[in-house]
Amino acid sequence: MRRLTSIAGWLTAGAGLGVSALAGYTAWTLNSARRPWPPYTFTPFEIGLPTEDVTFTTDDGVRIAGWWLDDPAADTVVICCHGHRGNKADMLGIGPGLHRKGHSVLLFDFRGNGTSGDGPQSLAHHEQRDLRAAVDWVQARRPGARIAVVGFSMGASTAILAAAVDPRIEALVVDSPFSTMSEVIAANYRRYRLPSEPLLPVADLVNRLRYGYRFAQVRPLEMIGAIAPRPILLLHGTEDRIIPYEHAVQLADAAAPGTVQLVTFDGADHCGGYFADRPAYIDRVADFLTRSLDADRVRPGSLDAGRVGPGSLRAGRVRPGE
Prior knowledge:
The chain is an alpha/beta fold and 322 residues long. The protein has 2 domains: 1-31 and 185-217, no CATH class; 39-180 and 220-308, 3-Layer(aba) Sandwich (Rossmann fold), CATH 3.40.50. The protein is 38% helix and 16% strand. Strands 1-2-4-3-5-6-7-8-9 form a 9-stranded mixed β-sheet, with helices on both faces. Residues 4-17, 296-305 and 309-322 have low confidence and may be disordered.
């Protein structure tokens, strides 16, 4: 009996160490700087557009690097936000596409990514400072311009959180955002067949002690309602394995009535809607921005929504299986 008790004790200790190790790895993955090597990326040179290298500084002293695609005739500016561990080169599809549609565009690297400086990193918590600094820079560079933000994945969630408290952002396009930080982490534990219930609270504790913020502080679900009456275009794929489609439904339900246009891409994985049909995606985003940022903008509640599949689009919010 004593031997069995000893074995049980060792197994319990081993399980505890395993949970602690996985929780620590989760917090490290979310917050630690990891730049790719070699640091080669595409630039606007590859797409033949004149671009200005710009920098600006956040309120906590981090230097942010960006590319400014200027259209002197434009009275609208679109700020593009990449995803977790991405960089501004990831935006060389949508950014130039919107520039060709008549907008000035700012692409930038979040802190610790691309050519921006190092600073406290997170999953859409500290990055809100970077987006606010980008809005400050645009406002100083182009006074009076109407500002929209286009974000993907973490960049989309960051955009929701920032826009909820910054009325200078007049329209949002958010592709594959998560509704809460806790739920997206839990979903990815389940994706790898790991038990989320014992891991999540320990990871949250490690994150708070080591990196200074709680998962509960990053909840776009609770903030999206404050964006009204400003319009939001929400795009999400039904087969998203990183941020499940249900997050989009939760966000649309939590928003003020009539402010969200939800577009569903059948069969698309994470941020896959753009790659399903690049020209159609850019056209749709550009049309939304034109209607949203026009001086005589459409009334909140007059935006339609739809499911996008091969050659199909129909009105009304559509969920899988309908």
